Amino acid sequence: MNTEEIAQLQQDYLMPTYAPGIALVEGTGTFVWDAEGNEYLDFVSGIAVTSIGHCHPKMVHAVQDQVGTLVHVSNLYFNEKQPVLAKALTDRSGLSGAKCFFCNSGAEANEGLIKLARLWGSTQGKYEVITMQKSFHGRTLATLTATGQDKVKTGFGPLPEGFVYAEFNNIESVEKAVTSKTAAVLVEALQGEGGVIPAEPEFLSDLRKLCDEKGILLLCDEVQAGVGRTGKWFGFQNYDVQPDAFSLAKGLGNGFPIGAIVAGEKLANVFQPGHHATTFGGTPLACAAALSVVDVIEEEDLLTNTMMMGAYFVEGLCDIAVKHKKWISGVRGLGLLLGLVLDVPAAPLQKKLQEKGMLALATAGNVLRLLPPLNVKQEEVDQALMLIAEACVELHEESAALSPNPCECGMGK
Ligand SMILES: *Cc1c(COP(=O)(O)O)cnc(C)c1O
Known about the structure:
Layout: H1 3-13, E1 24-28, E2 31-34, E3 39-42, H2 45-48, H3 57-67, H4 81-93, E4 99-103, H5 106-121, E5 128-132, H6 141-146, E6 163-166, H7 171-177, E7 182-187, E8 190-191, E9 197-198, H8 201-214, E10 217-221, E11 245-248, E12 259-263, H9 284-299, H10 302-323, E13 328-334, E14 337-342, H11 347-355, E15 358-359, E16 361-363, E17 367-370, H12 378-402
Parallel strand pairs: 3-15, 5-6, 5-7, 7-10, 10-11
Antiparallel strand pairs: 1-2, 2-3, 4-12, 8-9, 11-12, 13-14, 14-17, 16-17
Helix pairs in contact: 3-9, 4-9, 10-12, 11-12
The structure holds pyridoxal-5'-phosphate.
Pyridoxal-5'-phosphate is lined by residues 105-107, 110, 136-138, 188, 192-193, 221, 223-224, 249-250.
């Protein structure tokens, strides 16, 4: 099928929750191809998912082997892959006495974290969860309520009770939100959907102190920042802070759906038989996929590559930002979770890049979010920088040609 045929079929049979423009049919490493054979440099990675690149041979083999051995047995039986993966994640978390629960997505992992916090707090009459403005935690009823953005909530009320919001990177705001009913604070070490905004180090350490003083849990949503994306195994490891538990999903399975809760000793044994469950969570197949991801990150030293390529990319992006300082205000992020922050909407730049054969994301209105795979090569970063530089020059020229008045031009606010 060509793109037009696929688009027509989609329009007829899929709910219009998304509005895609191109149809991708194949991928290798940092590149994908559309139905017409056009090549794209993929700096979206399925939104921080395909972190070891498309169709990494090690993952292909792991999944192929497992699919012909055992796919699913239910959690009523042991499956050897699950505890091996749990050990791999807890060992790397640095949390002592940690244990895992496996599920299928980021929203489901956060839903589980919220349930875990409520069950822990239930004996003390605590159930409130404080979350941050501009946060993103998922699309289930509890996680969209936890999300600090009104746009995901409109029309879905009545929403579950027990969520309170505070300002990210503002400890006084969190202090004010604490009540005798507060069970937990849920925070991203680096807000991804919110616009690639890293936590300030003092904010997270003050948050840890506040939680310890008040007997509140500190929970991290590591769905986007986790599994190497920031140059550390988990985003909070960029800070001198340990949460009581955290959630994972996106990068964990390199595209095979899997989510996880990793909980330190305070929470590791709170869920008992009957408290929480999932049919599909942690199948041998999902765990085999995730284990191959952990192996590749380790064997190919991708945490180092993420830090080095991240620093190199930031340097090049800063040069571009300086050249266009009238409408690009800067670069922010950690590792390979980066944002080029514009003073104008990011969608025209994202569109222009796509026309030039590069995929990137427009986030939070004015941020171009860049998420190459963790094994991206320097020459691919160079190619991206060249395309972004070209696109910026062209956009600048086009907007100037459209109107001499910057308020009325296509790039205007
Ligand atoms: C994507 C994301 C989620 C939701 O994950 P899904 O797998 O889409 O349910 C939750 N939290 C953060 C920080 C995310 O980036």
